[in-house]
Amino acid sequence: MVASNTVKNCLPRSFYKSLISILREEIALLESLKQNLSQQRAALLTHDISAFLKVLEEQQLLIAETEAKSKARESVLKTYLHNPAEFRLSQIISEGPEEFKSTLTRLKVDFNRLIKQINQYRDSNRALIEKSLKFLDEHLSRLQRFRSYGYEKNGEMSVTKDSNLNKQV
């Protein structure tokens, strides 16, 4: 375990191998989550509620798996580093062995790129959902006004016996 805020030549190869393995798994999950958000967007744009709900269920599973993998990464860091909060991945890369630097750098870039793309999809999807909800609210209020004009919940027109609509000419 590293006691200070330096990792230079202190961490075993197994630490780097574990970190690389977990980052690869996390990146694969993030790729799946990005694809899922893309499918969610398509379902929102086509107003396909059943597809949206199916994608949402898959999304919840992917998020749970991603969070579990993130905890596994934190566990590896805690196992080898005295105070993992003091260390950034860039520091671990820069002070680590040369043989792992390029792989870790590429994984870091991929990870950050995916997080950015996922956040963009989430923001876009959130805006689409808000727009859809606003649309539904506006149209629902219009439909509710028709109810006061004599329409029942089942869509039938409610006409009293004394109404002119029931009288024959």
Succession of helices and strands:
HHHH
Number of helices: 4
Mean of residue pLDDT values: 87
- Radius of gyration from the CA trace? 28 Å
| Number of E strands | 0
The class by helix and strand makeup works out as: mainly alpha
Shape descriptor reads: rod-shaped
Kindly state the percentage of residues in helix: over 70%
- The level-1 CATH class of one domain: Mainly Alpha
What is the CATH topology assignment of one domain?
A: Methane Monooxygenase Hydroxylase, Chain G, domain 1
CATH architect. name of one domain: Up-down Bundle
Beta-strand portion reads: under 5%
Low-confidence stretches: none
> How widely separated are the two ends?
97 Å
Instruction: Give a short account of the largest sheet.
Output: none
Could you describe the 3D structure shown?
- This protein has 169 residues and is an all-alpha fold.
- It has a domain at 13-130: Methane Monooxygenase Hydroxylase, Chain G, domain 1 (Up-down Bundle), CATH 1.20.58.
- It is 72% helix and 0% strand.
- It is built from 4 helices and no strands.
- It has helices spanning 13-45, 49-80, 89-95, 98-147.
- Helix 1 (13-45) packs antiparallel against helix 2, helix 1 packs parallel to helix 4 and helix 3 runs antiparallel to helix 4 (98-147).
